[in-house]
Design goal:
mainly alpha, 81% helix
């Protein structure tokens, strides 16, 4: 599939925007607390998303499904979060299977599980 430059640039910008929003949410929730949970193998993403109000969950699902329809994948967003938050990136790289578990939690959340 041939993707033109403007479509790739738009996807990249959307990925960055989503990652920045996630970064902001992680910082508001308390990065140190989330790091402790991550060290215990508890999903940062799952903890945050499942702890939101029903209205916020609906909004996040809608936004993320919109991104998916534009070709932005959970992997792209998670990679961008790791690049703008090295401390989160270190957690994902340092724990066996942690990144896969986070991606699974995102997919479960998007399905409404």
């Amino acid at each position: 599939m041939v993707i033109n430059f403007s479509a790739r640039a738009a996807r990249h910008m959307l990925t960055i925007k989503a990652a920045r929003q996630i970064k902001q949410e992680i910082e508001q929730a308390g990065l140190e607390t989330l790091k402790v949970l991550a060290e215990r193998g508890v999903s940062i993403v799952g903890t945050y998303l499942m702890g939101c109000s029903a209205k916020a969950q609906e909004e996040y699902r809608s936004k993320f499904n919109s991104l998916l329809s534009m070709g932005v994948t959970p992997e792209m967003v998670l990679d961008e979060v790791a690049s703008i938050m090295p401390e989160v990136g270190a957690i994902m790289k340092g724990k066996e299977g942690y990144r896969k578990a986070e991606l699974r939690k995102i997919r479960e959340f998007l399905k409404g599980a």
